[in-house]
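Take just one protein record:
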Amino acid sequence: MGGYILRRLALMIPTLIGIMAISFAVVQFAPGGPVEQVISDLTKGDRGGGDRLSGGGSELSGQNFNLEGSGSYRGAQGLDPELIAKLERQFGFDKPPLERFVSMMWNYARFDFGESFFRNTSVVDLILDKMPVSISLGIWILLFSYVISIPLGIKKAVSDGSPFDVWTSTLIVVGYAVPSFLFGILLIVLFAGGSFFDWFPLRGIVSDNFDQLNWWQKVLDYFWHMTLPLITLLLSAFATTTLLTKNSFIDEIRKQYVVTARAKGLAERQVLYRHVFRNAMLIIIAGFPSAFISAFFTGSLLIEYIFSLDGLGRLGYESIIKRDYPIVFGTLYIFSLMGLVVSLLSDLIYTWVDPRIDFDRREV
């Protein structure tokens, strides 16, 4: 096992470099980079409308520029070439792409993610600031979806075809078919000051007076704010994990070794949890890395917008729209690294669930 872990760790390096290289190459051909974003803000400002440049380019606002020159960027016609050159130096685009990529990866290898182009804050500080929201959503969703869905899936597999299995499957399929964002809006209308009840808050994960509450009031306040977002996210996660568990257990229950175990006189509970469980759970464990990453990032993007939660999903989306590349590549690097590490951990869990698996005898 030690050799397998070392091979997997060594493989993470080219994999991570490949992910970043492909993303970096795609960005080079994408229109509307940070320089063009600044040019757009400046030209709007010179016409008397729009927002002035803020954040990382604030040193350029309020200056008088000669508008008789020309530029190679979209919308840069009439701007002073010296301004364009200054913007390129400020954002690091005065260097060749390969040099910028190598420098970026060297900094990322030392966990130096630089500063945001437009927020005047380091990428690490921004991520740490948004992390509590994403951790709250991700951890609770994973916990509830696995703790509830796995026992329910086992029960449905054991009672396959029974009335309990039929009506629970109906509810699960209907719940999965409903888009999460639509269900979230419905919950807001019903329970968050819409047309009916005003039982739950609409924004944030804690109240403004959170620091003034005692410990049990803080716990209640936290879960009061998290109730509607968690219910919304659980709708799809609950259905997927439950049906996957059920189908996996049904496949194992029908195999010959289960018939043999029953013929030996073992109790049904022993057959189910000592023999079937470790084989059926392998497919559930295999899906854990993607579920873990999506719960912390992409899976909560729409929910963060609907419930006004300021988490990593919203930060990443806004950074892509604004072309804030340090945040885009910084979060991509962190979550890619997390995904690779979690994937390795899931393999180690395989051996814990089923000791018969020996990764040392297989190729990476």
